[in-house]
Amino acid sequence: MASITASVYTSHVPAIGAALDLGKSGDDYWKPLFAGYDTTKAWFKDNTPDVIFLVYNDHATAFSLDMIPTFAIGCAAEFKPADEGWGPRPVPVVKGHPELAAHIAQSVIQDDFDLTIVNRMDVDHGLTVPLSLVCGQVQQWPCPVIPFAVNVVQYPVPSGRRCFHLGRAIRKAVSLYDEPLKVQIWGTGGMSHQLQGPRAGLINRSWDNRFLDRLIAEPEKLADVPHMEYVQEAGSEGIELVMWLIARGAMSDRPPRVAHRFYHVPASNTAVGHLILENSQ
Ligand code: DHB
Ligand code: FE
User: Fold this and answer.
1) What's the pTM value of the predicted model, to 2 decimals?
2) Distance CA 95, CA 114 (A)
3) Architecture of the 3-278 domain
4) What is the residue with the minimal CA distance to atom 2 of ligand 1?
């Protein structure tokens, strides 16, 4: 039987990818940010899973106003890094896991969550920046990745509660897979940021840190936070944080072990938050 061994949470600011790709990670501005991921890289080397189930959002790259799936599961054998305007990032092609992805789609859809099945999709910074932060600059990503795209860009967006329960359904699906795969689930995006309008540049350290506390200790109650609170307190793009609840919902009901916690402001316009939670086996 497959199982979820750990969850990883991280922001996905595109400028982080550019800093890495352009060799600027040692610059004064970026050094403290990347230092926060040193522990992570070492942890990941010791805890490389068989598959990563990576919850992220597409930023009008693969999808657009033409078509807006709320939840989309990537079932393809591979996913190319997207061209977001400056050419594709120089990072490896993402290899998928079509068998496990199809199994999760079957199980989760039968559990009443309407997923869109995607057989061709380029992946943007929402997916490639978290991989770079955790795996470093590599020739090949260390394991297959199932991209799971959530609409947090165009209203209406899914609630935290629905995301949390979807995580539960993903956990069940993984536990029913017939091969002993170790699966990590990653929740990405956030933390507080607003890229537009009069409040552009908004950061809310105290709200973010309380979110981290509650994600660890009382995720089910945190899932009750309405989407308007995310927008008011964490900015219009802070709503990306509902994706973290999918990953948290997929964890065991027992308290997790906090393997790493990090918070850093600023990275571009965003407060970077990062957590690694391990399931006790
Ligand atoms: C920034 C952050 C994001 O999450 C994003 O998708 C795009 C830009 C930023 O802070 O620049
Ligand atoms: Fe984003």
Assistant:
1) 0.98
2) 24
3) 3-Layer(aba) Sandwich (3.40)
4) 13
Using the atom order of ligand 1, give the atom closest to the CA of residue 12.
4
Looking at the annotation, which residues are catalytic?
125, 193
Mutate to test the pocket of ligand 1, among 12, 29, 59, 193 (most ligand atoms within 8 A of CB): 193
Where are the domains positioned within the chain?
3-278
Measured in angstroms, how far is the CA atom of residue 125 from the centroid of ligand 1? Answer: 9
CA–CA gap between residue 155 and residue 227 (Å, rounded): 10
pLDDT, tens digit, for every residue of 1-14?
Answer: 999 999 999 999 99
How many angstroms does the Cα of residue 14 sit away from the middle of ligand 2? 8
12 lines ligand 1 (CB under 6 A): yes
Per-residue pLDDT reduced to its tens digit, 171-184: 999 999 999 999 99
- My answer on whether omega of the bond before 67 falls inside 30° of 0, hence cis, is no
Annotate 194-238 with DSSP letters as a single string: --SSTTTT---HHHHHHHHHHHHH-HHHHTT--HHHHHHHH-TTG
Nearest CA, atom 1, ligand 1? 13
User: What is each CA distance from 81 to 77, 122, 128, in whole angstroms?
Assistant: 14, 6, 7
| Burial zone of 221 (CB within 10 Å; 0-12 exposed, 13-18 middle, 19+ buried) | exposed
Cβ of residue 151 lying under 6 Å from some atom of ligand 1: no
